[in-house]
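Please think about what follows:
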Amino acid sequence: MKLVTALLLFTVIGKPFASAADSGHWVVTWGASPAPQEPDAEARRKAKLEFNGQTIREIVHASIGSDTVRVRLSNAYGKDTVDIGSAHIALSGETSSILPGTDRALTFSGRSSVSIPPNALVLSDPVKVNLPASGNLSISLFVPKSAMGAGIHYSAQQTSYIASGDQTAAPVLNSPETISSWVFVTGIDVTTNPAASTLVAFGDSITDGARSETGANHRWPNFLSDRLLKKPAEIGILDAGIGGNRILHDAVTNVGFGVNALARFDRDALSQPGVKYIIVLEGLNDLGHAGTSAPLSETVSAQDLIAGLTQLVERAHEKGVKIYGGTLTPFEGTTYTGYFTPEKEAKRKAINQWIRTSNAFDAVIDFEKAVADPASPDRMLPAYDSGDHLHPNDAGYKAMADAIDLSLFN
């Protein structure tokens, strides 16, 4: 499945902002990768992904700070134009509240509302917000008429909110419902010094932080961001992980798993502002899903996945972007029936051997070693295991981040 993204670049009318905005050096401080729309109407309603006359207040966690931000709104995979009647940004308080004095209205080409065509992306005008590093933002969108959610990141590991009417400027939402997905909002960019850059963490559920504590921001890219804040160079992190994602095949039974990595690599990684580094941790689902949530006909060999990873490397290098390969983590004993077999394990080992020895990547990050049980290396260390013997817990995600050599980033 191919995504044709129409990028609408908006120009700020006049010069209302200080020199930071005028510098034009944008990097990503937060982002999430979208997946296709759920085709089943009942499933959409259950997941609260249909809107009509409602405000969506979405909570996101920044990596680096700035005094000037812009918001990326996406209608990715949408089939109809989506109207946003008004939009606001503020620093988050508790639950659906915002911090007093921080609310700002967003404009789009000087207008307070915007219509997003199918598959399109729109950028807000820059706005002054004193965003601290590791700060939480609330993005409030009013959807005035019937619209299906698009630009959806289904498993946010974060609670956001939906309320009736236009409450985009409300200090706290009145009678909100909760939602566990990010909708329409796919990125927050900031202006900062010319040496700053973006690092994209590109992968599947392990990069997405599956089974980490909701709202705690304990994904491994979050822990890495905390470490990078101690370096002189500012590096914003975009988490482009999608649970269930595969390198070579689209999702079959669950659209939330997203399109294949080769199809989404340009949009989710290479086209991001300021991108200088990519860390890839992907391939385990290509092995595990075949014969479980995907047909046996989608069984892949180690060489198939090596070829796919090589394509990602070549495309990154074509753009002058450094790309680091993460070794696939242990999954023996996983509670997902059929996901692990000895044959799949042999393929994982072969792929990791290639990652470590081929010199295809600019560097290797040994995630396997970071979380493996030394007494049983094909299994995850119990102290790092979320309980399904596939995904790390919060401590495991921290161990993964701690295994990354910060000298790779300057």
Observations:
- The mean pLDDT is 94.
- The chain has two domains: 6-13+25-188, 193-408.
- Residues 3 and 264 are 8 Å apart (CA to CA).
- The domain at 193-408 is CATH 3.40.50.1110 (Rossmann fold).
